[in-house]
Amino acid sequence: MLEINNLHVKLEDEDKVILRGVDLKIGPGEVHAIMGPNGSGKSTLSYVLSGRDGYEVTDGSATLEGEELLDMEPEERAAAGLFLAFQYPVEIPGVGNMTFLRTALNSQRKARGEEELSAGDFLKLVREKAKTLKIDADMLKRPVNVGFSGGEKKRNEILQMAILEPRMCILDETDSGLDVDAMKLVSDGVNALRDGKRSFLVITHYQRLLDHIKPDVVHIMAAGRIIKTGGPDLALEVENNGYADLLAEVQ
Amino acid sequence: MALPQAKQDALAARIAGLDLPKGGWLGEARAEALARLTAMGLPGKRDEYWRYTDPTALTAPQASAAVFDDSDEPPVFDAIDRVKLVFTDGIFDAAASDDPALAGVEIERLALAGAANIHWAQGLYGVLEARGQNPVPRPLAALNSAFATDGLLIRVTGRAAKPVSLVYQHKSESSDAILHHVIKLEVDAELTLLENGPAAARFLKVLEVEVSDRARFHHIRAQGRDHERLAATHIFARLGTESLFKSFTLTANGRLTRNDCVLELTGDDAKAHVAGAAMGDRDFHHDDTVFVTHAAERCESRQVFKKVLKNGAVGVFQGKILVKPGAQKTDGYQISQSLLLDDDSQFLAKPELEIYADDVKCSHGSTSGAIDETALYYLRSRGVPLKQAQSLLVLAFLAEAIAEIEDEAIADDIRGRLEGWLHRHES
Ligand SMILES: Nc1ncnc2c1ncn2[C@@H]1O[C@H](COP(=O)(O)OP(=O)(O)OP(=O)(O)O)[C@@H](O)[C@H]1O
Ligand SMILES: [Mg+2]
Prior knowledge:
The structure holds two protein chains of two kinds. Helix content of chain A is 39%, strand content 28%. Chain A contains ten helices and twelve strands. In chain A, strands 6-9-10-3-11-12 form a six-stranded mixed beta sheet, with helices on both faces. By secondary structure, chain B is of the alpha/beta class. Chain B has one domain. Helices cover 22% and strands 37% of the residues of chain B. Chain B contains nine helices and 19 strands. Chain B has helices at residues 5-15, 24-40, 56-59, 110-113, 127-131, 139-147, 373-381, 386-402, 408-424, and strands at residues 83-88, 91-92, 105-109, 152-156, 164-169, 176-185, 190-196, 202-211, 216-224, 230-239, 244-252, 256-265, 271-281, 285-294, 300-310, 314-323, 331-340, 346-355, 361-369. In chain B, the strands form two sheets. A ten-stranded mixed beta sheet of chain B has the order 2-1-5-7-9-11-13-15-17-19, covered by helices on one side. Chain B is globular, with a radius of gyration of 21 Å. The A-B interface holds A 50-53, 73-75, 77-79, 84, 86, 89-95, 99-100, 103-105, 107-108, 111, 143, 160, 164 and B 372-375, 377-386, 388-389, 392-393, 395-397, 399-400. Bound molecules: adenosine-5'-triphosphate (ATP) and magnesium ion. Adenosine-5'-triphosphate (ATP) binds at residues 11, 18, 36, 38-44, 54, 87 of chain A.
């Protein structure tokens, strides 16, 4: 599904190197988790994959089902099936959440040569998905993420994911800011999307989320590289011992 | 004090070809307006109120020819149930208009009603304009009162069941139209006035509105789409107790647009809202000049002006709130913002507050900014193409101004017009 090879990234305006050769391969239907110390480059990896400005890829590649992502515009990546649930969802004053969702969905459908969804069908779809995520009508009416609490913003990200039905989902610290119940709700939402084909890359600091969304593979990222890859046990090890031992191991 | 010779000459040249009909109450009003104009002279670049906008094209003897854009886009308000009254090259066009019969509304043509000796409009025509000459002279409005070629006198005694819609057309490419409308809303009356259409190569317009106690006036206009057009418009309104005045203007294109709005809140608990959304490209110059006077207690005024500028377009906002002594509990709000889509465009703003009462709440703010790159990326990451994402953010920026339109169908119409404009410019 997603294949990242030797990805090197620096900041566009500064000589700061952030990713120093990331290799990652996620097969169809797999759930991978990335953990790692603050500032190790996890969010940067997700931004670079989704096409945010400000980063320069100096080496390497990233393909989604064989197609080079790094040559595409952000909207093309989305239409190709990539989705990033943001660590810090963006507020857009003046743009209603419904308008936003509908424009996004129909843009992607159009880009893929599919028919746009009618207003009625769209409304039905949103209502159904919003209900399972306990997102009320008021949140749908308000401008995108404006005045949403931290947890509401994260749930709104998952709502977008549920509606857009991407093939490759990247979740950047979706668990941060969620209360225990919301964590369960969001995890259920994610698990409902697991269909054996759709793949997930879950960035998190805590084992807690991985109790709900069970990963097949866990990676540890440090200083812009994947320094260790293992099974679900690796996350438990981090939870219990922190990163010190792992970092010492590679040095 | 006599005007300098150069100013006298410029004025003489500007009005040389214009007709000043005599006789009747209107003849007197015209003569008085001419006297005001002669004392003031035409606006010049050095005048305080014309510092950001060069009036030369408006004061030149002749209007330069304008190429009108006859795109097949349906005119705005077409889908609204309304009484449509058409002016072609500045003259009322009965053949193209609806029957002006509307319960609770009396409509007369200025060109015909002026000959009488007495008329209700006597107390308003040129009168509100003259009041609005203080403290800042507005010579183009006095010129209009003197030389208006036509216009409507509308007296509203009840609640109009549908909007009166003024549509301005042109046949000539160098038409130089001067229209003057007077509207009087009697106590408890209500009217929605719509205005749209390219009007003329050069268009001078004055709208005087008396909103009596508890009356409600809604005004929505769409200017522009023809890029060459020049327009200088004035609204002078006086508000009675518990009355409401709401005016919204959409401007898309036009080379030079100057919209003056002079509002006087004279009755307690009145509300005046004036808003504008402008979108300009290339040699677009758009100037909103607003003066709101609070002369009564517990009145509310709102000024909401938003401009989207690109390819060197220029936006100007001069807005003032004057709170007179005794106008306690005034609530005055003013915001002017521009969204600059490139580095060539500019926005010049002069917000002013002058307050002589101690128990008031007044705020004003002015900002200029580029499109929010993070929001743009967020939209694109969800699959929205760049141009469409930009359009969404532009509409979002203008939303606060459009929200000033109360009627949802009309607001949707305006929004649709904006979307169409944005869509055509999505390249
Ligand atoms: N636009 C930027 N300007 C300056 N520094 C940046 C920028 N983007 C990322 N960085 C730096 O790159 C490093 C990696 O940041 P990144 O956000 O990817 O870390 P992270 O692994 O997601 O951390 P966290 O766990 O705290 O979310 C940090 O040192 C960060 O300060
Ligand atoms: Mg991060």
